[in-house]
Write a structure and sequence with these properties.
six-stranded parallel sheet; single chain; OB fold (Dihydrolipoamide Acetyltransferase, E2P); five-stranded mixed sheet; Rossmann fold; globular; pyruvate-formate lyase- activating enzyme; 435 residues; 3 domains; alpha/beta
Length: 435
């Protein structure tokens, strides 16, 4: 009997990547044939993103592309866009099913019911704020090269005025610490050296079950024998207390690479965004980390063109970014998201001005990243993980997030010491040699 072909694609964050991996695994275990999204398939599953207007457009474009590849295919939209705007997606004639995050663990079941004509509904969505547990933890681990990524937390309790994510992901739900330790132990026994912890807002881990916070989880993970490195995904500075700060700057197993969102370098804008901290507080955290661990790579997020962002406020942001010891900056142009409080503000920034500000900060990010890597030129980088191979060359990743081509005969998933011989403005074109 011919196997039914299923194709998946993921838009947006690592959380979505993780969950697509989970869904793929379910289909594979049931006997479906997984194929590339560019191929002709019988079922297409698009895991959507809605963090910006551009993300929405990309999701819609991808959906239409799938139906063009096979007009008879079942096309399914799931993910954050599906959760927040199900009716909007359902109006797209190329879509057969819209399945929100609240039903993501049931994607396989719902698709099979649709194919077998057991259900007639097109939209499956529930109130995401009714979710009280992390449902998808034990099912799957997403792998990025030689690095398994563990989803340990979902949701956010902050409700920044510009952000749609709480409405797409709900309130904080965390995995139990012992479950995470058990899963990490299994991965280490399989030979993995580095594990990446991810979540919607990782630093809010444990805010729901109260059996322990991120600092407690890290202290337990550090004890696992043969686990060489723990890398953390995005955190908020509001949740970084003295205990957590000490752990991430003193424990060698914690990768010296932290993504700490700023969003604006102007105090009034931060207040309008409801970020809960000042520029000075952010500066203090960053400078403390660098002082205690000088080789650390710190990245951040910035939004340009927030409705109340004056030219002076933007210049304050740019000046701050120039002075902060950052390794890179992710720059986003403000997009109004429905249900968020920022949509009620009087937008003072034109589209042209927003794009110009974004361009300025992207150029600044490229300069900052080049200068960061330049500090390590002709120096030794220890414990670089070989994560993949491309065009016959090994690709490595340092603890402080420097990608490089490496001259080595060592296999993928090995840790080696290297000398960084050449850097390039393209951050993944660096060259190193094993020493």
């Amino acid at each position: 009997m011919k196997k039914i072909k299923v194709a998946f694609t993921t838009l947006g964050c690592r959380m979505n990547q993780f969950e697509t991996s989970m869904i793929e695994e379910q289909f594979e275990k049931k006997g479906y044939q997984i194929t590339d999204f560019k191929n002709t398939a019988d079922i297409y599953v698009i895991n959507t993103c809605t963090v910006t207007n551009d993300a929405d457009r990309t999701s819609r474009k991808t959906i239409r592309q799938a139906k063009r590849r096979n007009p008879k295919a079942v096309v399914v939209a799931t993910g954050c866009y599906a959760q927040v705007s199900p009716e909007e997606l359902a109006k797209i004639e190329e879509i057969d099913l819209v399945i929100g995050n609240s039903y993501k663990s049931a994607v396989l079941e719902l698709i099979e019911d649709y194919i077998n004509q057991k259900r007639e509904e097109k939209i499956y969505i529930d109130n995401i704020f009714k979710e009280n547990e992390l449902k998808t933890f034990q099912i799957s681990t997403f792998y990025e090269g030689a690095r398994p990524i563990l989803k340990v937390q979902e949701g956010c309790n902050s409700f920044c005025t510009f952000c749609i994510i709480p409405y797409a992901r709900g309130k904080v739900r965390s995995a139990k610490i012992q479950e995470i330790i058990n899963q990490a132990q299994i991965l280490v026994e399989k030979g993995y050296k580095e594990i990446v912890l991810t979540g919607t807002q990782l630093s809010q881990f444990g805010y729901d079950h109260k059996e322990g916070y991120l600092a407690d989880l890290l202290l337990d993970l550090i004890k696992i024998k043969n686990l060489k490195r723990i890398r953390l995904s995005s955190m908020g500075i509001n949740e970084i207390d003295n205990q957590l700060l000490d752990i991430i700057t003193q424990e060698e197993k914690i990768a010296p690479h932290f993504h700490l969102s700023l969003q604006s370098g102007d105090d009034q804008i931060l207040k309008d965004m409801k970020r809960g901290y000042t520029v000075k507080q952010y500066e203090n955290i960053i400078n403390t980390i660098i002082k205690k661990r000088p080789d650390t790579a710190i990245g951040t997020d910035i939004i340009t063109g927030f409705p109340t962002e004056t030219k002076e406020a933007f210049q304050n942001t740019k000046k701050l970014l120039q002075n902060l010891p950052l390794a890179y900056i992710h720059v986003f142009t403000y997009s109004p998201r429905k249900n968020t409080k920022a949509t009620k503000l009087n937008d003072k920034v034109s589209y042209t001005e927003k794009k110009a500000r974004t361009k300025e900060l992207i150029e600044l990010s490229e300069q900052k990243n080049f200068q960061f890597r330049k500090k390590f030129l002709n120096k030794e980088l220890k414990d670089v993980l070989i994560i993949s191979q491309k065009n016959g060359q090994k690709i490595g990743l340092s603890g402080n997030y420097i990608h490089m081509y490496i001259q080595t005969k060592k296999d993928i998933n090995q840790l080696i010491n290297v000398k960084l011989q050449k850097i390039d403005k393209q951050k993944e074109s660096n060259i190193a040699i094993e020493i």
